[in-house]
Amino acid sequence: MQRICIKIKKFHVLPLTIILLGAILSFACENDLKDIDRIANIKKEEAVDISKHVTVIYSDSARVKAELTAPEMRVYHDTTNRNQGDYEFKKGVKIIFFDEEAKENQRITSNYAKQYAKTGIIEFRNNVVLIMENGSIVKTEELFYDEKNSKYYNTQPISIEFTDGRGHMQGTSFTSDSNFNDVEFQGSTGLYYLNSNQQLPGFGN
């Protein structure tokens, strides 16, 4: 008697809902992986801490020297040391400076700012306005402050409106001490009305 062996392959039929669920999960996993890669790349490139609605007080020997406020502050931790320790204010900044008697003697605002840790340079850009204690107003699109040498400088057009409408001055660039008592303009033009007690424009305090 001949024996016939028949091999039977078993097929499992999955419900349609399970198949669709698997497809959705697979798609979601792919998207999650893409998001993870994107976030990882951002962290790798930027290495930055972001703080919102920031107020920073600068003091020396218990005396407040300045107060900084900003909608956002970024602190960089670049492992290449290119930006290590830099502070960036992409949404604008306001800094108020105080004298030894805790009175405001200078105020500066801009739509963008960055402080470079290595050099101690603070860069202000876009609608930069500096108001001095005597009311004189400095306006420019670029301004640098050198903390180590206590001086301002820039390489773009700048203008100063003097207190009480006594005149104005423009220049293609300038350098100055922190109190604007020793100012050097390049390519300067302007108009200034002298009073009986003053021969030269009083920039600073």
Question: Which features would summarize this protein structure in a list?
Answer:
1 helix, 205 residues, 6-stranded antiparallel β-barrel, 2 domains, lipopolysaccharide transport protein A fold, 14 strands, disordered C terminus, alpha+beta
Could you report the average pLDDT, rounded to the nearest whole number? Answer: 76
CATH superfamily of the largest domain: Lipopolysaccharide (LPS) transport protein A like domain
Could you say what the CATH architecture of the largest domain is?
Sandwich
Helix/strand order: HEEEEEEEEEEEEEE
Specify the number of helices: 1
Give start-end ranges of low-pLDDT stretches: 1-28, 199-205
The major pleated sheet works out as: 6 strands, antiparallel, barrel
Integer tally of domains: 2
**CATH class descriptor name of the largest domain:** Mainly Beta
Provide the structure class.
Answer: alpha+beta
* Shape descriptor: globular
Number of strands: 14
Provide the spatial order of strands within the biggest beta sheet: 2-3-6-7-5-4
Radius of gyration, in Å, reads 31 Å
At CATH level 3, the topology of the largest domain is: lipopolysaccharide transport protein A fold
In whole angstroms, the N-to-C terminal distance is 121 Å
Helix content range: 10-25%
The percentage of residues in β strands lies in: over 45%
